[in-house]
Design a protein that fits this description.
The protein has about 190 residues and is α/β, with parallel strands linked by helices. The protein has a single domain, classed as Rossmann fold (3-Layer(aba) Sandwich). Strand 6, helix 4 and strand 7 form a beta-alpha-beta unit. The two termini are about 15 Å apart. Necessary for normal cell division and for the maintenance of normal septation.
């Protein structure tokens, strides 16, 4: 998809702040510093729409990006970041859980993992949480450009097995440097609202 129009509509913390209307929404989940902002920016062809921070744990709200008046990307706070208080982490968890389990417009969660490393316990828990609630999932394995091509399949296998990936859940290799996987990711997203 060629993206011409993108706007950050709102940074929400409560359901009453979510945008109105029935455009399909896709939440982006992943641990802090996994490359969610880079993924968003690559997908929409912008350099700095989603702010990339050298400080993990920067996203503390649900950021609703409206794309082409067609759909929303919803960037949720990254998980697994130790430098925020337990209380703060619990508040984020509650906010994310409320959104994911109660939002009718949510079509799928895009779970972003780092292809270079096996999924973390938090990744596995997040995937299990989505399966428990029957929420469709697209797995994006980023940073593929940092691994030799000859090892891609091995790393994909580790990701698939660690998450115990269910039949039908798509696992897409991605690089925000080279654009690898961008078209595939758009196809997967579109399959949920066509």
């Amino acid at each position: 998809m060629k993206v011409h129009q993108v706007e950050l509509v709102i940074s929400a913390v409560r359901p009453e702040q979510y945008p109105e209307g029935d455009l399909p929404e896709f939440a982006l989940a992943g641990r802090s510093n996994v490359g969610k902002s880079s993924f968003i920016n690559k997908m929409i062809g912008r350099n700095s729409m989603a702010r990339i921070s050298s400080k993990p744990g920067k996203t503390q709200t649900l950021n609703f990006y409206k794309i082409e008046e067609t759909l929303y990307y919803v960037d949720v706070p990254g998980y697994g970041y130790a430098k925020v208080s337990k209380k703060e982490r619990e508040a984020w968890g509650k906010m994310i859980e409320t959104y994911i389990t109660s939002r009718d417009q949510l079509r799928a969660v895009i779970l972003i993992v780092d292809l270079r490393h096996p999924p973390t316990n938090d990744d596995v828990m997040m995937y299990g949480f989505l399966k428990h609630y029957g929420i469709p999932c697209i797995i994006i394995a980023t940073k593929a450009d940092k691994i030799p091509k000859s090892k891609w399949q091995k790393h994909l296998k580790v990701t698939r097995e660690s998450l115990n990936l269910e039949e039908g859940d798509e696992l897409i290799m991605f690089s925000s440097e080279t654009g690898l996987g961008k078209d595939k990711a758009w196809d997967a997203i579109k399959s949920f609202y066509k």
